[in-house]
Amino acid sequence: MRIPILKLYNYLLTTIQVELDDQTAIQFQDDLLNKIHETGAIGVVIDLTSVEIIDSYIAKILGDVVNMSELLGAKVVLTGIRPAVALTLIDLGIRLKGVPTALDLEQGIEKLRQELGE
Amino acid sequence: MNIAPNRVEIHNEWDIVRARQSGRERAKELGFGHVDQARIATAISELARNIYLYAKHGEIIISVIDGEKRGISIIAEDNGPGIRDLRKAMEDGYTTSGGLGAGLPGVKRLMDDFDIVSEEGQGTKITAKKYLR
């Protein structure tokens, strides 16, 4: 299963609409990094509106993706984290420190613009 | 409602997804709200992943608690290496697998009841329960 990644000007947009198994998550990590490299994108929004569960493993992959993308020069914002997912992550003791988030896609792009001074 | 326990054998990473989906469906049928459904499914995901990582295979058994208090019971059982230091395994941030170490203490916080029996070289049995409010 591949998660589509769309390019929009200098940004990449992706919305995760499948149940994330380990393989899909790892594949996504690879695909996103390659796409940043190919396109020279400076900002990425990963929309999680449809994601019903983030366990510690998926959280780690998402956190890693943010850090790896920054090494390639792209800023990542996670958007659309559901209230139930947020509560569950806190119960699990996962903080996702330093990971920029926004309520929805629109605010995510706004946040990128601000951070990148565009 | 079908109240026979759901047994999901854990052999690979896709079984982790099957187990948590099965748990979420059962939690929904029982009338748990969205947040508790997510808590239960996430707890199952963590337990199934522990089986996959440490014991290679085992089983998740999801059943309905139909007593004075209604709820859902999750049993995670394996015949793996067992846990050497239970007290340490229940500390936040402790991991022997390079993960986030959210594992067991996280599961305990997600659920209402948590019980663990583990014997080195014999295996581990974890029972976690969540009740309807």
UniProtKB/TrEMBL annotation, chain A:
UniProt-listed Gene3D superfamilies: STAS domain
Signal peptide per UniProt: none
Taxonomic superkingdom: Bacteria
Entries under CDD domains matching the protein: STAS_RsbR_RsbS_like
InterPro entries xrefs: Bact_StressResp_Reg (IPR051932), STAS_dom (IPR002645), STAS_dom_sf (IPR036513)
Cited SUPFAM superfamilies: SpoIIaa-like
Location of the STAS domain: 1-112
Name of this chain's protein: RsbT antagonist protein RsbS
From TrEMBL, chain B:
Protein source organism: Pullulanibacillus pueri
Gene: rsbT
UniProt keyword list: Kinase, Transferase
Record's protein name: Serine/threonine-protein kinase RsbT
The keyword Transmembrane helix belongs to this UniProt entry's keyword annotation: no
SUPFAM superfamilies: ATPase domain of HSP90 chaperone/DNA topoisomerase II/histidine kinase
MF term (GO), any: kinase activity
Origin: domain of life: Bacteria
InterPro entries (UniProt xref): HATPase_C_sf, HATPase_dom
Domain Histidine kinase/HSP90-like ATPase stretches: 35-133
Record-linked Pfam families: HATPase_c (PF02518)
